[in-house]
Amino acid sequence: MPVIHWLRGMGADIVSVVERGEAHFNDREILAAGAAERRFVLTHDSDFGTLAFRFGAPVFGVLIVRPGDLPPPATMATLAPLVTAQVDGSTPAVAVYKDGRLRMRRVGLAQDP
Predict the structure, then answer these.
(1) Average pLDDT of span 8-19
(2) Residue 4, Cβ density class (10 Å: 0-12 exposed, 13-18 middle, ≥19 buried)
């Protein structure tokens, strides 16, 4: 969980499904919990974007970080420019962050799960 602790140290308001005892949740349940709390889901798994767009799962936001097979220090280095940037996260979106570039696709506001 070094990435989570680092993000908190950078001022991010972040929660962890592991810390909450929700690691057993499936992807749809994680999206629904994020939608209910109006939080982005931070992941390396593109399935979350597929659930939002193709299957209409309730979502407030998803941030997919690529590549996904990096060790924590490399993930932190990858995320550092994004964490310090002024990014509007108030509008529901699915975003992919790769090679220092953020691509965002807006989604409709999530309905109550």
Answers:
(1) 90
(2) middle
